[in-house]
Amino acid sequence: MDIDSLKYRYPLDPTTENFIFRTIREMQDLLQETVASQMKIQLPEKAQSEICQIYFYVAINIENLLDPRYKPGIDLINKNFSKQLANFQNDLQGIALSSINKGVPKAYILEYLCMYFESGYKKVFPNQPLIIG
């Protein structure tokens, strides 16, 4: 099964899609606040988008696939957002289990979660590329 078949056979649930969008948006806001208060700088949109992606990749435990240049972002997420990360991981586990119960093959669950992430990400950062794509 390829990603296109996955999208066709198991269309994204709008409620879950909106949840992922809101989560990315909240992380973007929290990230801006944290960096502004701790470092007294404002991150450009490109850096914000990369760190929001890193947040998702850490949540699904594939941060080891990222280029080493993203290590500072991984460290930032793990150091400053551990509570949010734990909550997001729990939410993603629930989404994964629900999706599997609806018939999404277990072997494709990471790809399916990535489809949700990509949908929300494109709404928040329409002009920024994915760092894993």
Protein architecture, described:
- The chain has helices at 3-9, 14-39, 45-59, 71-80, 82-101, 109-124.
- With 133 residues, the protein is mainly alpha-helical.
- α2 packs across α3 (45-59), α2 crosses α6 (109-124) and α3 crosses α4 (71-80).
- Report mean pLDDT, rounded to a whole number: 94
Number of helices: 6
Largest sheet: none
Report the end-to-end length measured between terminal Cα atoms.
Answer: 18 Å
Q: In total, how many beta strands?
A: 0
Low-confidence sequence ranges = none
Percent helix, as a range, is over 70%
Q: What is the N-to-C succession of helices and strands?
A: HHHHHH
Going by helix content, strand content and strand pairing, the class is mainly alpha
> Whole-number radius of gyration?
15 Å
Strand residue content: under 5%
Based on Cα principal axes, name the global outline: elongated
Summarize the structure in short.
The chain is mostly helical. The protein has helices spanning 3-9, 14-39, 45-59, 71-80, 82-101, 109-124.
